[in-house]
Amino acid sequence: MVGYRHISRRAADRVVGIDAGIDGDVVAEYEAASHDTGAEETQDVTADSGVSRALSLAATLIDAAPSGLTKAEVRERVEHYRTAGDGASAEAFEQQFSRDKRHLRRIGIEITEQGGGAEDREGRGGDHEFRYLIDPQAHGLPLLELDAEEVVALRHTELLWSGTRAQQAIRQASGALLAPHLGEGGLPDIGGPAQSQPSAVRLGLADDQVLDHLAVLAEARGSRVVGFAYGPRGRHRAERRRTLPLGVGSRGGWYLVGHDLDRDAVRVYRLDRIRGAIEPLTVQDDGAAAILQGIAEGRVDPRKVTQEQLETLGPVHGTETVELSVAEALVPSFLPHARAQSAEDVESADGAVTQRRRSRGDGARRLTVETSLHDSFVGKVAAAGPQVHILSGHRLTALVRSHLESVLRAHRDFPAEPIELKPARHGARNDALVKIARVVSIAAYLQASGGARVSDLLRRYSLEPRQLHRDLLSLQQSAAFDDAQFGHYIDITPELPLTRRVFEERLVPEDPVIRVQLPGERLSSTLGRPLRLSTPQALSLLIGLEGLIASEDPTEELVRAAAERLRDRIRAIVPEELDVTATELSVVWHSDDDFGREPQLHAALGAGHAVELLYEDLQGRRTRRTVDPVNLLHDGPRTYLRAWCRSAQGERNFLLSRMLELCPLPETPLSRESLRLAAEPARRPEVPRLPEDTLVTLRFAPSAVALADGWAPLREAWHEGGSRTVEVALRSPAIAVDLALRSGGDVTVTAPEELSAEVLHRAEAALAAVRRSASSCVEYPETQTKGRTP
To answer: Which pLDDT score is estimated for 291?
Structure first.
C-alpha cells in the first residue's frame, strides 16, 4: 500500500529533538541513519507540523466521506492531533482544530457540517457530535478547456504582478487553470505558441500591498465602510480615514474612489499611499446610509462616479506649451522634449539628427516644449534648478513651485527621532495560511503534471531552496488516517535529503523531476485537482487579464482577444462579489515615452535589426552605444528596452525616457547573443550594485513607501506614522540628491548629512529662480488639483 507507515518515517531513525512549527506546534526531528540522502549527518530540516496536520485533516475527511467524522473521531484518528495532544488540554485541541478548519476553508477546501449546532465559516459554534466532511465531488475547479492563445494570455498575466505574494497568487491561479494541459515536467502540452516570448512585456501592474487592499475592498464593496491610515503626498505621518468604497481603478497607479464620511464628500485615494491594512468598520453614519439607499434606488451609480473621478487622475496634469531657457550642459537632456517646428534640423557627421535652438546671450538655449505636465517632467525641471528657467507656462511654473516647496518642507520638518535600521526582509510572507495554500497547490500541480523539476517549483512559487525543501517534507508527512489509526502517507520521489546541505548542494543543481503519489484513488482524484481560486488568486488573475486587454501593443491583438475570452469564462466560476469587482475594474496604462520611441523600437523588433542610442544614465552621463532590442518592458509608468548591449557585452535595460537619440540600423542584424536572450523570460529591472557604491539613508513618506523596494534596500525601519527609512547602495551620491529633488517631498535624504544639506541648498536655489519668473504668481487651477475630487 502506497505510503503506508506511521509518522516515524524509518525504523533506523531516532528522535533527537523538537522544532516549533507554525502557531507554536512541535515537530519531531530525526537523526538520519546511513542512507545516501545525507549519511552520518544530523537532520537539520523538518516538516512543518501545522502544514502537515492541516493537510492530514483534509485527507482524512475526504477519505471518511460521505459519513464524515466528529471532533472526537478526528482527534482519535489524526496522529498529528494525538501527538500534540498528549498531556494537552481539550482547549488546545479545540484551538488547533478550529484554526486548521479556518485555514482550509479560506484556501478553498470547503468543510461542510452535518447535524449538531451550525458553525460559521470561521469555525465558531457547533458541538462534538457535529460531523465534518469534505465532499470529493464538490472539491476543486471545474475543467476549463484552453486554446493555445488563451494559454499564452495566461502566461503573460504571470508577468504583470510585482511582489512575492502577488506573484505566488497569480502563478498558482495560472497553474490551476493550466493543470489539465500540463505535460511531463510541468510544461503546457497544448501546441501553438504557448512558449513564445512577447515583443512587449507588461510588469508592475500592482504589488502585494495593492492585492491585499483589493481583496478587502472586494468583500466590502457597496455595503461596508472601511478605515485606513492614509499618507498624503509630502507628509511624514498618515491620517485616519473612513470611507464607503464606490470603486477602484488603475491610472498609472491604483486608486480607490469612495465617499469620505468625515468630509461628507467623494474622495480619491492612491492605494500605495495607504499604510497598513484596510479594515472593514461597523459604523452608524447618516451619510453612508444615504449613499447606500441611493445605490439601492438607482440614483447613485458607483461605476459612473468612479469613472468620472478616475478620468482626472494619474501622473498627467493636462497639456501646456511652454518656453524654457536651458543651460548648454543640459540641452541634450531637454532637446528631445522640444517641438520640432521651432527648430532647424541638421544632420550630424555620424548620421544622427540634432536640433539647433535659438541661443541667448548667456549661452543658454531657448526651447519650445509641448508638455503633458507629467509628474516625471515636473520633477525633471525642478531637479534642474537654476539651470532651467521657465520663460512662459503658468501651470508648469505653479507645479514646479509646489513641487520644490514640498521638497523643502520634507527635508526641514522630518522627525529627528533615533532610527535603528534592521536587515531588510525580502521574499514571501510565510504565515500559516500561505504555507498551507502553497503546499496544497504544489501537491495538485505535481499530481496533474506528472512531476516538475526543482527549478520550476522554485520559480513558480517564488521560493528559496530551504523553503521548498521544508514544503516537500511537510507534504511527505501528510496522510489520510483510517479508523485503525494507520496513516496512508503521501510519497515523493526522488527520496528527499534530511539535511539542508545535501538538498542545496546536490538535489538543486541536479534539478530532477519531483513526483508525488497520493494514496488511494479517491485522494488522487480529489487533492490532485486544483483548488478553487482564492480571493487573491481570482483577483490577481482577473486584474491581470484586464491589464492585457487594456494594452495597446499592436503585435498582441490575438493575446488581447484571448484575454477577453478567458476573463469572461473565469468570471463565471468565481464568487459574485469578485465577479462584480472585476466587472467594474478600470485599467489604463500610462507610459513615460514622451519622446515617441516605442513605435521605432517596435519597428526594429519586427524587422530584426539593431539600433543606436544616445543614452543618459542616472548620473547624467551620456554614452552612444549599439544595442540589439529583445523586447519592451512596461513596469508601471516606466517603459524599458530590454536589449543586448554590444558595448557592455551583456543584457541591459534602458529607460525610454532617457534615450536622447535613437537611430535605426537596418543593415545590422540582431546578434546571436540577443537571440539567446530572447528565449529567456523577462525579469523586472533591478538597481545594479557594486562594491564601491555609496551607502545613503532615505526616508520614504507614507505616500511612497512602495517605491523603496525598487532601490534594493539593505536595511530598513518602519515608523509609527507610516514612513519607511531604508539604507541603499548607490553608484553616486548625486543619484540620491536627484531622487529627492524629483520626488516632490516623497523621498528625504537623511544621511549622510552633507547630502541632505545639498538637497536643501539646491531646492532653495531652484525655488528662488522660479519665484523670479514673471509667471510664478499664477496658481494651479483648483479644478485640476490632482488626488481629490472637485
So the answer is: 84
Q: Residue ranges of the alpha helices (H) in 297-431? A: 302-310, 331-334, 375-384, 394-413
Q: Which residue has the higher pLDDT, 119 or 743?
A: 743
What would the DSSP string read from start to end of 439-468?
HHHHHHHHHHHT-EEHHHHHHHTT--HHHH
Closest CA to 337 of 357, 314, 361: 357
Compute the 3-state secondary structure of the chain and give helix, strand, coil in percent, each to the nearest 5: 40, 25, 35
Bridge partners for 346 per DSSP:
354
Quote the crossing angle between the two packed helices 394-413 and 753-771, to the nearest 10°: 150
Question: Measured between alpha carbons, how far is 364 from 347 in angstroms, rounded to an integer?
Answer: 22
For residue 239, how many other CB atoms are within 10 A of its CB? 15
- Enumerate residues 6+ apart whose C-beta is below 8 A from 606: 199, 555
pTM value > 0.70? no
Residues facing 161 on adjacent strands:
206
Determine the pLDDT at residue 152.
80
Q: Are strands 239-251 and 587-588 parallel, antiparallel or unpaired?
A: parallel
pLDDT at 33: 36
251-299 residue pLDDT tens: 767 889 999 988 888 999 988 788 778 988 877 777 788 888 888 888 8
H helices of 477-595, in order, are 500-502, 508-510, 521-527, 535-550, 557-571, 576-584
Residue 359 in this model has a pLDDT that exceeds 80: no
Cα→Cα distances 94→125, 131, 693, Å? 11, 15, 54
Q: Per-residue pLDDT for 591 more than 60? A: yes
User: Among 465-479, 520-534, 555-569, 749-763, whose mean pLDDT is lowest?
Assistant: 520-534
The three grid cell numbers given for residue 646, joined into one nine-digit string: 554590444
Q: Is residue 203 within 8 Å of 162, Cβ to Cβ?
A: yes
CA distance 572 to 565: 11
Cell of 308: 468620472
Q: Is 285 exposed, middle or buried (0-12, 13-18, 19+ CB in 10 A)?
A: middle
Residues contacting 516, CB < 8 A, separation 6+ = 443, 446, 447, 451, 475, 490, 491, 492
User: Given the DSSP bridges, would you call strands 14-20 and 26-31 parallel, antiparallel or unpaired?
Assistant: antiparallel
Q: Which string of DSSP letters, residue by residue, matches 189-238?
A: -S-TTTTPPPSEEEE-SB-HHHHHHHHHHHHHTTT-EEEEEE--TT-SS-
Q: In the 8-state DSSP scheme, what is residue 424?
A: P
List strand residue ranges (DSSP E) for 701-757, in order.
715-718, 724-730, 747-751
Determine contact, residues 622/616, Cβ cutoff 8 Å.
yes
- What 3-state class would DSSP assign to 713? coil
241 bridge partner residues: 228
State which H helix or E strand residue 301 sits in.
Answer: none
Query: Is-contact 492 514, C-beta < 8 A?
Result: yes
Cα radius of gyration rounded to whole Å, the chain: 29
Q: Is 59 exposed, middle or buried (0-12, 13-18, 19+ CB in 10 A)?
A: buried
- CA-to-CA separations, 137 to 45, 105, 115, 140, 525, in angstroms, rounded: 36, 16, 20, 8, 9
Q: Are 342 and 391 in contact (CB under 8 A)?
A: no
Element (H, E) at 745: none
